[in-house]
């Protein structure tokens, strides 16, 4: 068994076929979209904050693309609930790889981290740290 | 499944490509990414090694023996490539870095000087970014306009539209010979005739045709034609620009420096003769010599035979891929295409498919294949592409099909 089949463990296929928290969120406090132009993966994340304004109450997403990108968004949407914005901003690609629980070839890492980057940019925009319309991965 | 006799002596050819013996986790490589780059046969590798072992020197500078040997071999490489594509001689063959640089050479040397507001460059919807982006940007800088010949539902050029789009305002028709995504073989002679009726030049992107079928620049009546060494059993780092002698003669150089000059004073410079006028600096010496060897290698097999072999493989792959009904293959039917199939499996994204195929050591390309606008027309962001060359077999396509089936089941 090489990298390919390992990449598609049951958990990833399950999240891809039955995405959690899928759909637009009308009363979102933060929303942001991103894409991998070379792959055509797109993800839009919606974040609803708790009353304290710094804790994530609920996350949803809509998107289109490969199994890795969409499963990653689905799993991340669960992972982020109840977390502080600050802790989400501190996440890196290792956290995503750990969350997915699979080994990823270098070419597929960008698929996996798209959702994370979209959320992090969304928070940065919310905090007034950056001004962009759309996130793109290299 | 694949019992029919092959056109080529595949076993003998494969013996020249030791890389094809590579195994990944005990599974032998199935290399089907030849439209991106082809593998390099031993005779070409030996030519490269021999150059560096025996006569590596700069060309056109030294009086010493090594430089003379390198210069002669490098110059004769131009003759060999000229012969390979039916050009009149070395004056019409400029060595560049790749097809992209060949397009840029003409776009800068001719386009920037000759194009202006009201002028039109006619391209096709199936152009590779190499020509599409280049002409698009040169048009922006000069005020010229780009127009695109649309494709039909079957992935062919709409020639009626072409007749209307090419007008007396057209200065350049830049068209891909064989589409790297659709596999369509475009009627370039016909397009050249239409272009010439309107006093326009025609530039043929032959990156996907020169490697696998007989191409004759005189027969096409191309004003310019470009291709890359690494897609035709040659090394990376070398491309070719063919240009009609009188046109190249009239153009200004694209790069300035050594090698491209005859006489230099503090005030002015006089250009070297063709083709050296367009080969500034120390050129791609070893790569040029190796490309000539690749031409020998391909001619020995026979370009008609290679064309026949590729079209057999393409048709076989097309038929097997479409048999299940859940695979869309882009472009014309199996019996009328170049040696590649770009496709999408209904339930599986091209990148997921490519990862799963990699698990069976099947190497294909997944993505936009440098034809993003064409993918927009096709209504998909990405596709998987299997592309064939002289060493591929139907048994390898069977392995591709098996791996596609694995993906189908995994995502069912």
Gist of the model:
Chain A is an alpha+beta fold and 138 residues long. Chain A has helices spanning 3-7, 10-17, 67-79, 85-89, 93-100, 106-126, and strands spanning 30-36, 41-49, 56-64, 135-136. Chain A has 6 helices and 4 strands; from the N terminus they run ααβββααααβ.
Comma- or semicolon-separated keywords:
A: Sufe protein. Chain: A, 4-stranded mixed beta sheet, B: 412 residues, alpha/beta, Aspartate Aminotransferase, domain 1, 2 domains, 4-stranded antiparallel beta sheet, 14 helices
Mean pLDDT of chain A: 90
Number of individual domains of chain A: 1
Shape of chain A: globular
Number of strands of chain B: 17
Beta-strand content bin of chain A: 15-25%
**Which two chains touch over the largest interface?**
A-B, 22 and 25 residues
Gyration radius of chain A, rounded? 14 Å
Helix run count of chain B: 14
**Radius of gyration of chain B, in angstroms, nearest whole number:** 22 Å
Q: Write down the CATH class of the largest domain in chain B.
A: Alpha Beta
Rounded to the nearest angstrom, the distance between the terminal CA atoms of chain A is 29 Å
Helix content of chain A: 40-55%
Largest sheet of chain A: 4 strands, mixed
Q: From the helix content, strand content and strand pairing of chain A, which structural class follows?
A: alpha+beta
CATH-scheme architecture of chain A: Alpha-Beta Complex
CATH topology of the largest domain in chain B: Aspartate Aminotransferase, domain 2
Description:
The complex is a heterodimer of chains A (138) and B (412). Chain A has a single domain, classed as Alpha-Beta Complex (Sufe protein. Chain: A), CATH 3.90.1010.10. The mean pLDDT of chain A is 90. A 4-stranded mixed beta sheet of chain A has the order 3-2-1-4, with helices on one face. The radius of gyration of chain A is 14 Å and the shape is globular. Chain A contains 6 helices and 4 strands; from the N terminus they run ααβββααααβ. Chain A has 138 residues and is an alpha+beta fold. The longest helix of chain A has 21 residues. In chain B, the strands form 5 sheets. Chain B has a 7-stranded mixed beta sheet, sandwiched between helices. A 4-stranded antiparallel beta sheet of chain B has the order 13-14-17-16, covered by helices on one side. A two-stranded antiparallel ribbon of chain B has the order 1-2. By secondary structure, chain B is an alpha/beta fold. In chain B, 41% of the residues lie in helices and 17% in strands. The two termini of chain B are 25 Å apart. Chain B has 2 domains: 131 residues, Aspartate Aminotransferase, domain 1 (Alpha-Beta Complex), CATH 3.90.1150.10; 256 residues, Aspartate Aminotransferase, domain 2 (3-Layer(aba) Sandwich), CATH 3.40.640.10. Chains A and B meet through α1 of A and α12 of B.
């Amino acid at each position: 068994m090489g990298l390919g089949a390992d990449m598609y463990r049951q958990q990833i296929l399950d999240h891809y076929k039955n995405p959690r928290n899928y759909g637009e969120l009308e009363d979102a406090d933060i929303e942001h979209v991103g894409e991998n132009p070379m792959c055509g993966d797109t993800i839009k994340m919606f974040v609803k904050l708790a009353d304290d304004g710094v804790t994530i109450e609920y996350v949803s997403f809509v998107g289109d693309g490969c199994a890795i990108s969409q499963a990653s968004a689905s799993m991340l949407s669960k992972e982020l609930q109840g977390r502080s914005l600050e802790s989400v901003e501190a996440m890196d690609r290792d956290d995503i790889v750990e969350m997915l629980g699979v080994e990823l070839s270098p070419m597929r890492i960008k698929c996996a981290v798209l959702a994370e980057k979209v959320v992090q940019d969304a928070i940065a925009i919310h905090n007034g740290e950056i001004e962009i319309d759309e996130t793109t991965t290299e | 499944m694949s019992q029919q006799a092959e056109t080529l002596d595949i076993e003998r050819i494969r013996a020249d490509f030791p890389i094809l013996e590579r195994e990944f986790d005990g599974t032998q490589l199935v290399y089907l990414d030849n439209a991106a780059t082809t593998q390099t046969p031993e005779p070409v590798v030996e030519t490269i090694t021999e150059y560096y072992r025996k006569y590596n020197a700069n060309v056109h500078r030294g009086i010493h023996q090594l430089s003379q040997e390198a210069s002669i071999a490098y110059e004769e490489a131009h003759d060999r490539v000229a012969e390979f594509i039916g050009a009149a001689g070395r004056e019409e063959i400029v060595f560049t870095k790749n097809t992209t640089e060949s397009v840029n050479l003409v776009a800068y040397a001719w386009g920037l000087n000759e194009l202006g507001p009201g002028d039109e460059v006619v391209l096709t919807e199936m152009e590779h970014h190499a020509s599409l982006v280049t002409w698009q940007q040169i048009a922006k800088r000069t005020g010229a306009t780009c127009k695109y010949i649309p494709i039909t539902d079957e992935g062919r050029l709409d020639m009626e539209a072409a007749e209307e789009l090419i007008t007396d305002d057209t200065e350049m028709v830049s068209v891909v010979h064989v589409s790297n995504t659709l596999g369509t073989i475009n009627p370039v002679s016909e397009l050249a005739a239409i272009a010439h009726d309107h006093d326009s030049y025609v530039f043929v992107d032959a990156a996907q045709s020169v490697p696998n079928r007989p191409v004759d620049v005189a027969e096409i009546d191309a004003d310019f034609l470009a291709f890359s060494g690494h897609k035709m059993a040659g090394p990376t780092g070398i491309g070719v620009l063919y240009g009609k002698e009188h046109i190249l003669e009239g153009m200004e150089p694209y790069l300035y420096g050594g090698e491209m000059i005859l006489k230099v004073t503090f005030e002015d410079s006089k250009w070297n003769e063709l083709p050296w006028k367009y080969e500034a600096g120390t050129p791609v010496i070893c790569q040029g010599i190796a490309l000539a060897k690749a031409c020998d290698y391909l001619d020995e097999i026979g370009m008609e035979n290679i064309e026949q072999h590729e079209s057999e493989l393409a048709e076989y792959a097309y038929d097997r891929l479409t048999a299940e009904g859940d695979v869309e293959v882009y472009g014309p039917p199996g019996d009328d295409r170049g040696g590649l199939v770009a496709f999408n499996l209904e339930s599986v994204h091209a990148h997921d498919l490519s990862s799963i195929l990699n698990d069976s050591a099947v190497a294909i390309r997944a993505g936009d294949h440098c034809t993003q606008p064409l993918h927009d027309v096709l209504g998909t962001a990405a596709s998987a592409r299997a592309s064939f060359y002289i060493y591929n077999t139907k048994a390898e396509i069977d392995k591709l099909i098996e791996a596609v089936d694995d993906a189908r089941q995994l995502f069912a």
